[in-house]
Amino acid sequence: MKPNQSAALGTESIGNLLIKQAVPASIGILVMSLNILVDTIFVGNWIGSIAIAAINVVLPVSFFIAALGMAIGIGGSSIISRALGAENQERALKTFGNQITLTLLLTVLMVGFGLYFIDELIPAFGGKGDIFEPAKVYYRIVLYGVPLLALCMMGNNVIRAEGKPKFAMIAMIIPSVGNLLLDYILINLLDMGMAGAAWATTISYGFCFLYVLYFFISDHSELKISLSHFGLDISILKEMSALGFVTLARQAVVSVTYLLMNNILFNLGGEASVAAYGIIGRMLMFALFPVLGVTQGFLPIAGFNYGAHKYPRVRESVNKAILYAGGLGLVIFAVIMIFPEAIISIFTDDAAILSETPHYMRWVFAATPIIAIQLIGSAYFQAIGKATPALLLTLTRQGFFFIPLIFILPHYFGELGVWISFPAADVLSTIVTGYFLNREIRKTLTE
Question: What is the pTM of this model?
């Protein structure tokens, strides 16, 4: 970031800054979310609802691999940014080389493990009954591409660390567009079914990888590494791991949640319930993109002003971020409550799914207007450099509340208890986050 741009974080109006920071972040999230959403629509309409359930079974694997690459990317990128700022080019190059080596070692090892235990892992992820065979087809092919996915996620963060957000955004768009085009060709035109859906995903990872590779070997990047930079450095690995752990832990909990939900819903309602969760889960990723965009846009504003001891601006950024994100959450809530049937019918014409899923989706989004407090609150601690409360509050919703609730509430409410767990976890985590956020602000943001 140029000096005059960073100085604006401490002088320009908070409202304008939030809009400038949140819009590009929202666009990036929107592109990725649309890819997942439209991919699900294509699969549901061209293959069937079982295919949606099968893909949902494989999502924990993809999420965890992506989280691994993202964690290595974020952890290493922090080191790279500081090294470049200190004009320590050699440390930046060594860190980048270590990121590549570590990503390849871990992902290739995981692919080997995943392929060897494929028949045991798929049922463990919820791929049972009629879901097993299509999930196995999809899983095997997608697994071949996950090292490329991890390298893309890692590389994307390094591109941002070099101050090239436009290239990072293009890297996000390429696999999304490629996947949708390949879905149409391989599933609709060539009638390749689940294999077509899987190859579309894997090849799109390849497109992204080629673009990221092009960036780093071209004149756009200043990180020109040699073979000597690939050797692992213990001090760099330790720092990278510590910085990336919050990201990995957060995404790992998401993967565990998918695994548990697939199994619990299969036992309670069979394939139709797993397919319903596949649709609702994708709507959660898609519909909340503007709220998540405000959250990401809020981070540099709060962090800069906190470092500059401009505490009234920090308080204003917290309040306005919650106000903006809460307002967007209210709009999303209204749309979901009014049009759930129309939304679900976009994904499938299966009568069994259409009959119950709209009701379930209303429950899942019931607390959407208040989640801004939880998201902005946990982001605030990250912005001011307090990693432990940031990690704990980030994990509060899914780790501390949601996972226990999906085991407890079904005993009293059956399958409905699973869906009630969503707003219950939102409300509880919002109360906890609001308490600690208010206490921290009162304690530290005073003149």
Answer: 0.69
